[in-house]
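Task card 7
Instruction: Convert sequence to structure tokens.
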Amino acid sequence: MKDGLILHPFLFIYQNLLTFNFYHYGHRICKKPLYQAFRRYNRLSIYFSGRINLIGEHTDYNGGFVFPGAVDKGMVAEIKPNGKDKVCAYSIDLKDYVEFGLNEEDAPKASWARYIFGVCREMIKRGVDVKGFNTAFAGDVPLGAGMSSSAALESTYAYALNDLFGDNKIDKFELAKVGQATEHNYCGVNCGIMDQFASVFGKEGHLIRLDCRSLEYQYFPFRPDGYRLVLVDSVVKHELASSAYNKRRQSCEAVVAAIKKNHPTVEFLRDCTMDMLNEV
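Output:
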């Protein structure tokens, strides 16, 4: 495969995504929504957004509150069942092609492909009869910039597989958990639920107050008239699996375990008082 050349059967997917326009009930819209999908014949084109978070860093896995919102940058993919027992995937942005089976031992080596593979496996665990498919995807979320491009990718494929192979039997809460489980089990990141929840439940013009323990949530309008919220891409790349993220979570869980010896009702750092912290 030469740079910029995608051979059959990916040519149709590549061409569609390069000229991808979002339509809603037959009408073209100028601004990308937070989520959109449409079907043509037996192909599914789908888009999910990345996210920002205004309040609550490292609080989701501690059972706390967060205040994220979806943004108008995300991931778009086109998926077509291929009648085989393998997935053929192409990353347009990375110019990389991977094939993998659907069994646990078929996990691909490419890190980007493990997100798609993980979603396939997690959907299978939940009773969705996932079959082989051809797919290509691209996005305008800056990779490794902390805007949850991985969650957008997971949400895109979780929704697509639920639609194509699962008769949409998996609800939105569980689709968010599919993305989280993919990070845990296949990508080496012990993340909380915030990123995937914000991608799946994002609503235009609103932020989400999410209780990460109960998953109760409430939308709050966010239209800062007269002000601008500026998001700066520092161009400093990071991968959570190779960063101190997992170690920070382990530290929080170690504190909870120590407190739990004298206070067995404590489940998360959120439940702890200052007196409990002082004890340990």
